[in-house]
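Risk register update: the risk that structure generation would not scale has been downgraded. Supporting records follow, first protein first.
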Amino acid sequence: MDCRSSMESSETLRNKCAACYKQFNKFEHLVEHMKISYHSGHEPMCGVCKKHCRSFESLREHLIGPLPKQECKNIFSFRGCRFCLMILETPNARRIHQERCQFSSVNAGLTTRMAALGVRDKAMIDYTSSRSPKVVALSCKMVGGGSDGSLDLCARVCITDESDNVVFHTYVKPPMPVTNYRYEKTGIRPENLRDAMPLKHAQRKIQEFLCNGEPMWKIRPRGGKGRILVGHGLDHDLDRLQLEYPSSMIRDTAKYPPLMKTSKLSNSLKYLTQAYLGYDVHVGIQDPYEDCVATMRLYTRMRYQKHKIEAYPLAADAHNRSNQVAWRQNEFERMSPDEMLSISRSDYYCWCLDSLA
């Protein structure tokens, strides 16, 4: 009886995913799961049981959700940071870490700060400086056009660097009449747009700044001059600016898999800032500077995640594609779940790779 139980236990472990711990009835089902799951060391991971999660939302549910793993929940309640979800050595280490992990709001005194910086209309960009930033955040605020005011028109744009400094800020004159200024959210009045920078002019300045003297076709994340662009819902902002930029250079907090909902839908910037940075945004009139700072902080937090360095980290890399073509069922059958995990690669670009550039 003991021998039989031992054999069943061994078979159970062999059919269990080494990443997400999902149990399968047959080993071939585990193999198929590993082929499509794209588990990797870049996924958020529980600091207690080492379970891989597809997103930080999934990890949060695992730790403190309605049906958490009880052992992990108990340890997290004493030693876990509620912002970055890291497990610390002691409750005191957790307290010190969490104080540093929580950011303060930039909303208090925002207008005063921006006025002191002289950026109520900072329409000049110095993109020739040797200290010019490699990573910048962009945010736009929209007013309404069309007969019912529902058409988004860019009326204000802000760009900041990694130190929360304003690189560019201006009101933008839309190419068509404004029928709804949406003042309660934007704080924009007709007088702000009367002598504002034309959209085409703003577009040209921003494009030149982002490309940094490099042709669009030549821009790449590593070794090039182009700047990495951070934001939330950048597809929409760039569309309203009528501006194109290579997707390989865009870091969008609305589309980054670890920051998305378990349903694979986007989280709002308001939620992400509250959950992962520890303060509130979009309280009253919304300022694009506030959005730039929040998205840059989220990006920075994701960028400095500590993950294993791999020569070919993406499943889409040519090296990994050729390996996958060569994989055969009988080859997998000789592998343990841990060995399969060791050759599995991510299906998204992890922002930690930017720190290696």
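Supporting record for the second protein:
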Amino acid sequence: MLLGELGVFASYAFAPLSLIVPLSAVSVIASAIIGIIFIKEKWKPKDFLRRYILSFVGCGLAIVGTYLLVTFAPNSHEKMTGENIIRHLVSWPFLLYMLVEIILFCLLLYFYKERNANNIVVILLLVALLGSMTVVTVKAVAGMLVLSIQGNLQLDYPIFYVMLVCMVATAIYQAAFLGQASQMYDSSLIASVGYILSTTVAITAGAIFYLDFLGEDVLHVCMFALGCLIAFLGVFLITRNRKKAIPFEPYISMDAMPGMQNMHDKGMTVQPDLKASFSYGALENNDNISEIYAPATLPIMQEEHGSRSASGVPYRVLEHTKKE
């Protein structure tokens, strides 16, 4: 994972942001194929086809979408010098975009924290907005590092450290919101919805900050958008085919337990008592049940021994009739 993330980090210095971000669909395709191989589940051919048909269709669509993305992606890429980054940072389109994003982020955060709006779209939109700033700053930091390694030192620009701090901060808060979403929703749903929202917002941020589509003709832009839509559909179908987790049952059904007496025939139902705590197989308060299942008392009489040296048991059990 570390090597893969380092490779993705380095790729931002050599290619447009709008091309790299949607290519994360490749990891979803690889995960689906490798997952089928390593799970090693035994399926009959008919069951296997029924189980994984959506995954195969999704992989095919994701591959087609990836091909369109690579073919019609923007080709313009400028060097990430300190002057260029500052120029993009103070441009009025990006300042307007930042204003809209900050307002939207604050509104979503207010509804999420104060109004308990725990919808997955709200949470993953917060992640996507933070992620768009993460990829913008990652491209700036990676580009300036590569230029510095090549001999054109860029580390003496304060904007480098500003971008580095923003990159780390947005990545941390992004991971925090993702962790909260994973506690409430299934990982496959988070993967599909998160990929769609994060990719859309990140491409928009890259197009505004780095002017990725400047000078591109309408045909290339439309084909690029079509490739994104096909990749979105493919990822959705791949993640749609996951097994759903079995929800937790607060009590055990007494009828489902083998060898257990069924009391429904006598009108005495077995129900869970959920008023105080989870109880398994608790019985309703019923006078008939208390009479039938009242514990038998065993009368015990203590014997008086006149001598301490007397041996024998200190008590004896009286015999009583069946009626008693």
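Residues 120-149 form the longest helix (30 residues). On this basis the risk owner (M.S.) recommends closing the item.
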